[in-house]
Amino acid sequence: MDTLSQISHWRVVAASVCGVSHIKTNQLCQDAHHWELLPDNILVAAVADGAGSASLGKVGAMVAVETAIEEISFHNLTQEVLQDDALIQEILTTVLVSAKKTVESEADACNVQARDFATTLILVIASPQAIAVAQIGDGVAVAKDTNGNLVALTLPDNGEYINQTIFLTSPEAIDKMQFKLWRLSVANVGILTDGLQMLALNMAVGAPHKPFFFPLFDFVTKAPDRNEAKEELVKFLSSEKITQRTDDDLTLILAAFHHHY
To answer: Structure pTM?
Structure first.
């Protein structure tokens, strides 16, 4: 076996921090994230935002991301599998259905309603040549190719009213799932919850904000130490520059792929 093919060239930095509004009321951060590097240079990552109105939204978010990443790792993803559009959509749909069932089962085990575990969920599969995303609710997944083109792979599903969205526990969640496949030479991936989307997106045209993403992608590309990089990311998310513009919980996963030519 060529062991070099098993060495990942992904660099990943991720953090969830409690929003100012939750700190003031002594509430927990309702966001959660989870990611894993699989063989064949495949990155899987998930973020979730527990509903503020849900008494156990934090638990729902944690169960959703952990289930999604665990389930996706059972599917033996390879670069070859990622070439099949229909198969990838089927796998992502299956994983989201499983995450939904697990969250609802947890709620049942706790003798509460499923809505008490309400959460959004974004799940990303990324390889050097393709990214697939499934999303329920708000937040956004963004990608940059090796030519510097920046795109929003998904857009926040905010329903009819501001601050309203669909949750994984909603009966229509799977039917309203966003799915996107993007095939270019991948340089960076960013996934974030809705606390950051007003800073990260030009909502009028649905385009990522370059001054927000480019320095962050440069940061993860050059980060030599993952632990130090995570500390830096937490500091950034907790900084006055950010907290003056949003008081919500914040989650951000940043990834960079180093291509060898």
So the answer is: 0.93
